[in-house]
Amino acid sequence: MNVFIVHAHPEPQSFCAAMKNAAVETLSAAGHGVVVTDLYAMRFNPVASAADFLDRADPDYLVYALEQRHAYETGTLAADIAAEVEKLKAADLLLLSFPLFWFSAPAILKGWIDRVLLSGLTYGGKRFYDRGGLSGKKASIGITLGARPHMFGPDAIHGELETMLRPILRGTLWYTGMQVLPPFYAYHVPYITAEARAAVLAEWRNWLLSLQRASPLSFPRLDDFDERLYPKPRADQG
After folding, report:
1. Is the pTM of this model over 0.85?
2. Mean pLDDT by groups of 10 residues along the chain of 238 residues
3. Cα separations (Å) of 151 from 100, 144, 156, 166, 170?
4. How far, CA to CA in Å, does 154 sit from each of 33, 142, 160, 183, 185?
5. Chain-centroid distance, C-alpha 28
6. Kind and range of the H or E element at 93?
């Protein structure tokens, strides 16, 4: 299995970075190919702009998604995007590694998504969800949090963690066709003991080794809808 890890934490000595390093070691030792993009270390530019295209279909008005299609088809993507696209195409599993910032991912990771998950390659028309351009690949996330587990849930102070991450799990990974495997959450990591951190890392390593056997999260499929994308009646609805 070829694993592509996209890591987004500004501190190389962070626990999140330790998880990334452990993932490389564990997956490599298990015989998997592992490629890492460390967004902060490489100073990845997160800002989508006209500079992303060496040639424009319409030089007078920027429709970013349409220019993505044109640039991919003509081989005129900016070099940093083209390199990431090749890593993504070669991957069987995409693993996003990041800390939870403001109920979401760091801006640099959002920028990677904006610039690398190309229209025309990963989605477009009705090529989304189970028919997305990355169908056949798998994806998951491993994130670190400062909060405790009991702070998340339907009636908890922060609400449900899965709801916060819906734009990534459903609106990005599943939207582009990837099977989304259950996430890994490392809670309260800035405040726990070294022994507790070691225990979390051991749990993380076991989780990584179980990924190939993991059942994906369940999301609606296009077959559940008609051509206008209205829900089809269920059998029990007559």
Report:
1. yes
2. 97 96 97 98 98 97 98 98 98 98 96 98 94 97 95 93 94 97 95 95 97 93 90 71
3. 14, 14, 5, 18, 22
4. 38, 21, 5, 18, 17
5. 20
6. strand 93-99
Written as six digits, the tokens of 213 are: 């056997």
Q: Read out DSSP for 205-220?
A: HHHHHHGGGPPPPP--
**Dihedral of the alpha carbons of 210, 212, 213, 218, in degrees to the nearest 10:** 110
Sign of the CA dihedral with 121 first, then 165, 169, and 139 last: positive
DSSP of 23-85, one letter per residue? HHHHHHHTT-EEEEEETTTTT------GGGBSS-S-TTS--HHHHHHHHHHHT-B-HHHHHHH
Residue type, 31: G
**CA–CA gap between residue 132 and residue 117 (Å, rounded):** 11
What domains are there in the chain, each with its CATH number? 2-237 (3.40.50.360)
- Written as six digits, the tokens of 147 are 């909060």
Spatial separation of the C-alpha atoms in residues 176 and 224, rounded to whole Å: 17
* Side chain identity at residue 234, one-letter code: R
